[in-house]
Design a protein that fits this description.
The structure is a homodimer. The first copy, chain A, is an alpha/beta fold. Chain A folds into two domains: 115 residues, NAD(P)-binding Rossmann-like Domain (Rossmann fold); 195 residues, 3-Layer(aba) Sandwich (Rossmann fold). Chain A contains twelve helices and eleven strands. In chain A, the strands form two sheets. Chain A has a six-stranded parallel beta sheet with strand order 7-8-6-9-10-11, with helices on both faces. In chain A, helix 7 packs across helix 8. At the A-B interface, helix 7, helix 8 and helix 9 of A face helix 7, helix 8 and helix 9 of B. Chains A, B: InterPro entries: DgcN-like (IPR011669), DgcN-like_C (IPR035086), DgcN-like_N (IPR035402), P-loop_NTPase (IPR027417). Chains A, B: This is DUF1611 domain-containing protein.
């Protein structure tokens, strides 16, 4: 486990989505975060105290979390300099980037000298199996998306909480660096060797016999030209019983690829169901999760209502309004003795 | 380049498809292969002289090619022992397994002492980009399959030869270990980190301005629960203009997963076209390639005719009978000045 409390890194970032790992920790592990480290050119904030490394150490911080992302996950020179300063001040350093901290000789040397640890969260386990597609016991929900970074992790965590509030056994299965940092465990799917994608998810969410649910964090989108392979392997490995489609209504083009239009929600859901049926022919859509952060309450509720009506499924912003509408429908669909007969999809 | 001539390894294998890398070299680089190394329990043969390591060295062999595959690509103890014996006799060793030769300390040490080289063909290049999905110049054909190991590489090479015979500029883009060993270059797609799948193919088959074709070797199948993520990333990165669907009519269940039925050909083609349209909306199917090795000539020709009739596309075994029917149709579909108007799909 990565020693808390954390100093969250924003650095020079001016990309709201690029700081999503830091933001996720500030949101879901608020009690473990003492402040944020940002430079003068960073217009973003997590609403935490802005601290220098020295101030963070004085506030009890034990780890600097490099919670920023860029396409390709590269470890840039500015990040390295800030990490070196943190190490010199006695902080551990954690990162979810593809580039490994330990592969940067300056960081490895400095950490060894200072006696602190470098945590590379995006390190998949060795010896993953190739997927076998065999049906396994247990109930699984997978969040899928129209795009990357539309709120799949938030929706998954909120649905877990809503299930637990009903007394259901429900566990979050993290598949990305932010989720792994929040949960303290998981598997960084996009860093897995391609041949082992579905096998990785079979390992992350094995057979389950307690009647409870695994809620698996989705990745990417079948409609994202960069990452749809990851999404496909995830769908096949998860063999989900239930899909929740996540969408950010404020998104105008695909993340990082503004020339690519977002898919229609119904088309996106159909494509995901089609792919998922290969390993679970009984898969069904159970809800739509909208990320309504840019809308006021009335507009958000109206959009959820209209979207749900249009798609014939419960629709909510599960992080903002709770996951109850979707969990209600799940309980109907998957009631142990009275199978639902009014499937809308 | 890996020094020829080669001694091809079959080892203890009793799996006809598992030795496909050795067989591919024996077929397409016959002049560079002096013999095969197989143990007494191996019932398979490539039709080459069976040689001991000493006999192979005496016949001029310079490299032992570990041309066998297993799910997961593991380097087993028997392989290691045979590779050590080859190194001791002065041979280089080449492997397409996921497990790297250089990561096995006994092999690394022995090779260093003997002054020979270990070639890990399944090493993807470092610093691959994330895919961008941007349309790029050039014409691309991708082979796709109902399953793994149904003849995509053979079909791709045969279609290249058929195109060249018409005076077209046409290049084979290898994406698997066998193709890379045959072509002497390429990119082992299934060994790429998942986030970089489509970016890897954009790198392998960049913009092309000479009016010629890139013929990209397909991998896996959208209907294979273990590997469909790789196939999806390949489709998106290739942004193919033309798809050729490859199928082995003798296959009864998916490779390695006998519980999974093979997809219907029309369904499989439709699914591939749907995925491919994300990065090239103009993609079209141009033919069906059957692997008829288990059929006699008359049965093979009858099956090709019936399959082509049923799917409304030219169908042949391009390795056995040549790729002309498919190339004829490609020339019609992609004629520079007279676009085809009778598309059947």
């Amino acid at each position: 486990m990565i020693p808390a409390p954390y100093l969250l890194y924003l650095g020079h970032s001016d990309d709201e989505i690029g700081i999503k790992t830091s933001r996720g920790l500030a949101t879901f592990r608020a009690g473990d975060c003492v402040g944020e480290l940002r430079h003068d050119d960073c217009p973003l904030s997590l609403g935490l105290p802005r601290l220098t490394i020295e101030q963070a150490v004085a506030s009890g911080a034990r780890t600097l979390v490099l919670g920023i992302a860029n396409a390709g996950g590269v470890l840039g020179e500015a990040l390295i300099r800030d990490a070196l300063a943190a190490i010199a001040a006695g902080l551990h350093v954690a990162s979810g980037l593809h580039s490994r901290l330990r592969d940067e000789p300056r960081l490895a040397r400095a950490a060894a000298e200072a006696g602190v640890t470098l945590f590379d969260v995006r390190d998949p386990p060795a010896d993953l199996p190739v997927g076998n597609g065999l049906r396994r016991a247990g109930l699984r929900l997978l969040t899928v998306g129209t795009d990357c970074s539309v709120g799949k992790m938030y929706a998954t965590l909120a649905l877990r909480d809503a299930m637990r509030a009903r007394g259901l056994s429900a566990d979050f299965r993290a598949t990305g660096q932010t989720g792994i940092l929040i949960a303290g465990e998981g598997l960084p799917l996009d860093a897995v060797i391609a041949d082992f994608l579905s096998g990785a998810i079979e390992t992350l969410s094995p057979a389950r016999h307690d009647g409870g649910w695994d809620l698996i964090e989705g990745q990417g989108s079948l409609f994202h030209p960069s990452f749809a392979g990851v999404s496909t392997g995830l769908l096949h490995g998860a063999q989900p019983d239930a899909l929740v489609l996540c969408h950010d209504p404020a998104r105008v083009g695909m993340r990082g690829l503004p020339h690519c239009p977002l898919p229609d929600l119904a088309e996106c859901l159909d494509a995901n169901l089609r792919v998922a049926r290969l390993t679970n022919p009984a898969v069904r859509a159970v809800g739509i999760a909208l990320n309504t952060v840019k809308l006021d309450d009335a507009a958000a509720r109206a959009l959820c209502a209209a979207t749900g009506e249009r798609l014939g499924l419960p629709c909510t912003d599960p992080y903002r309004f709770g996951g109850d509408p979707i969990v209600d429908w799940i309980l109907q669909c998957f009631a142990p003795s009275t199978p639902a007969t009014t499937a809308s999809r």
